[in-house]
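Format notes (please read before filing issues)

Several people have asked whether sequences and structure tokens are stored in separate files. They are not. Every record keeps both together, in the order shown below: the sequence lines, then the token lines. Line labels are part of the format and must not be stripped during preprocessing.
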Amino acid sequence: MNGMGNDLIREARLRVAMTQSELARLAGTTQSAIARLESGRTSPSFDDVIRYLRLMGLDLDFMLVNRDDSDTALVSDWSDLTPEQRFDRHVQVSRRMRALRAAGAAAREATALG
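Then the structure lines:
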């Protein structure tokens, strides 16, 4: 799981708002070992990824689905754009995502207060 496992562990830790030190303590290792793992300097086995996720109260779920051609269509749509146009689209999407995250956070806060 070179790369993907590292990213999964880091993303999971951030989702549960846990520090590297806290995860290290649960896993019986050091903060520097977790930092090396998350940065990709070491590669966890699949079993290690599952173990770390479960220590954080999470689990990994896989699902096999039929493949579609949406990626091919997207590449085809974007292949005619200049680099500047592609960059502008990325900026637009990033702004929309930021706005959606803010709206979601506001809704969760309102629900918690309400």
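For reference, the curators noted about this record: DSSP finds six helices and no strands in the chain. The first helix runs from residue 4 to 15.
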